[in-house]
Fold this sequence. Notes:
The protein has one helix at residues 3-117. By secondary structure, the chain is mainly α.
Amino acid sequence: MDFSQIALNNGLTFLAWSSGIVIIIVAGFLLKLIIDLSALIKNLNQTSIMFNTELKPTIDELHETLQSVNSIIKNTDNNMVSIKDAVENTFGKTKAITGTLFSGLIKGFGTMWRLFTGK
């Protein structure tokens, strides 16, 4: 064999060994990545279960609170309608009485005016 053939053979052998070592290193990093991702997924699953168990009662309590507030608002609205109707009835009757008194007062002043002026 000549020298170029030996150099080429040594170069290819070095390339094969270095490629194998790089592939083994990359496979080790990929294995470590897969193990870490598995642990991360387990932690995320536990976190989601914890949020679900802790958040469900909170949401139920918030729902009950909102229903309670809604019923208070509806009750207040109904009471305001009752108060409004009572005020309208009171002022409506007062207006009718005042209108009758005022018209009677004007007729009385008119009658008195005619009596005193002699017309």
